[in-house]
């Protein structure tokens, strides 16, 4: 094996491609087995040797690698903690992560995940939402266990790195994490993950109630509602409890007691509180990073693969920036407001604003049409006036409506749907059809088609007739 072969095995493992599959890919790229001088066993043996080479030195190698990063990467921050000689916690963040936190760090979310390295250390990424509504990592930690001591140390390292506390912290119901946040982030509001709470509902109610679609809609519309305040929420909550006889359920009672920690209605008047409601972004990031991870990886390989995942994440962020700076969106109205919004917001945010602008414009058009009908009715009802006055009224009214239609052109939704289908198919949809697709085709293997379908009473009658015929034959 040569250096390029070694790199093929190592780089493939970074993307969860095993030695056997890596060899098949390399064989295909070489043009077949006759052009491949290295066997599959050679690839597997080298991967085994690479793992054995690190052995129990990976924690030390991890620290040394991070020390090297501090020397060559400006703004790179990391700290670690050992329990006697064993690594128990590690935190790191580079300059880009620190800049992202400075710009978007009002609300952070973090959640731990397991089995991302062979030592089963828990990986804890800290996430924020950038101006493209995308999740970005602003720091990450490895801890040996979900203890108050470990979480407290990590949060202090996070605070030392970023030098300011967040406004909001979204977390799950981990008791150790909750106590550590209260000790370190004393100025931040702590909010429980709504998704983690709601997903427990099926296991807390009866089977009949769990299968009641109306109940599921009621509770979801209540807890996720961003348009009601605390008083309205409490009133609807008690109505729901009474309606479904949940007054004696301790779990629902406990949820109501901590409603200030998770219900949206209690955060609607707080700036930025609606940015993140759940830790699902953290879990999604964990899954995303896990694409490049495997539980047998040592800590050094884990760090390498983590860097690959972050590089991909930042590449997408740069693409979002490029699209925002170099393209122009399609406007749905001629309003200056829409044009101005496109110049100051990123594309993903602008599209949300555009939807709201469109709603307002259509509401304005509808109200204008109502106004026109009322004005015409008013003109007709005042026939005692001179006919010339009526003609002038109607002329001015029609001119006004023409101006409105020029300002806000009407787009038929059904026509838009047909246009989209036509563009996708690459052919127009004919109004008249004189050629039809074949019917009644039955090929081999599709059955005899003689089986009859019965339901209910018909089935019982058919079975009864068969039994009578059988009995008569006997």
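Q: What amino acid sequence fits the structure above?
A:
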């Amino acid at each position: 094996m040569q250096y390029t072969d070694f790199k093929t095995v190592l780089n493939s493992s970074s993307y969860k491609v095993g030695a056997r599959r890596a060899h098949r890919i390399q064989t295909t790229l070489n043009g077949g087995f006759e052009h491949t001088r290295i066997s599959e066993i050679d690839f597997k043996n080298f991967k085994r040797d690479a793992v054995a080479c690190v052995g129990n030195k990976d924690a030390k190698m991890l620290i040394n690698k991070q020390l090297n990063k501090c020397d060559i990467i400006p703004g790179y921050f990391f700290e670690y903690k050992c329990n006697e000689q064993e690594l128990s916690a590690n935190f790191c963040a580079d300059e880009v992560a620190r800049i992202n936190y400075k710009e978007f760090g009002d609300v952070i979310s973090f959640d731990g995940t397991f089995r991302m390295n062979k030592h089963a250390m828990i990986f804890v990424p800290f996430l924020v939402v950038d101006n493209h509504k995308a999740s970005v990592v602003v720091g990450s930690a490895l801890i040996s266990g979900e203890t108050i001591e470990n979480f407290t140390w990590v949060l202090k390292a996070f605070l030392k790195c970023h030098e300011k506390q967040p406004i909001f912290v979204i977390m799950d119901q981990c008791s150790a994490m909750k106590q550590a946040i209260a000790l370190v982030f004393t100025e931040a509001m702590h909010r429980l993950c709504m998704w983690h709470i709601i997903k427990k509902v099926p296991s807390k109610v009866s089977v009949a109630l769990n299968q009641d679609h109306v109940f599921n809609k009621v509770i979801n519309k209540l807890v996720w509602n961003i348009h009601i305040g605390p008083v309205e929420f409490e009133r609807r909550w008690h109505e729901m409890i009474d309606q479904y006889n949940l007054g004696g359920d301790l779990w629902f009672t406990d949820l109501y007691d901590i409603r200030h920690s998770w219900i949206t209605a209690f955060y609607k008047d707080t700036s930025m509180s609606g940015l993140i409601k759940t830790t699902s972004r953290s879990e999604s990031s964990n899954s995303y990073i896990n694409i490049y991870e495997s539980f047998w990886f040592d800590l050094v390989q884990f760090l390498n693969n983590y860097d690959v995942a972050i590089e991909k994440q930042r590449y997408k962020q740069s693409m979002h920036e490029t699209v925002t700076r170099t393209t122009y969106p399609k406007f749905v109205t001629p309003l200056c407001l829409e044009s101005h919004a496109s110049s100051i917001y990123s594309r993903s945010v602008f599209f949300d604003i555009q939807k709201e602008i469109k709603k307002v414009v259509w509401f304005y058009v509808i109200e204008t049409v109502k106004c026109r009908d009322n004005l015409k009715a008013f003109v007709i009802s005042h026939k005692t006036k001179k006919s010339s006055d009526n003609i002038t009224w109607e002329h001015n009214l029609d001119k006004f409506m023409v101006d409105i239609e020029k300002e806000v052109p009407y787009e038929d939704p059904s026509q838009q749907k047909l246009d989209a289908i036509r563009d996708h198919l690459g052919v127009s949809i004919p109004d008249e059809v004189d050629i039809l697709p074949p019917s009644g085709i039955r090929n081999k293997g599709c059955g005899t088609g003689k089986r009859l379908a019965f339901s209910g009473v018909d089935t019982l009658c058919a079975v009864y007739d068969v039994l009578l015929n059988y009995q008569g034959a006997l």
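Q: And what stands out in the fold?
A: The first strand starts at residue 77 and ends at 83.
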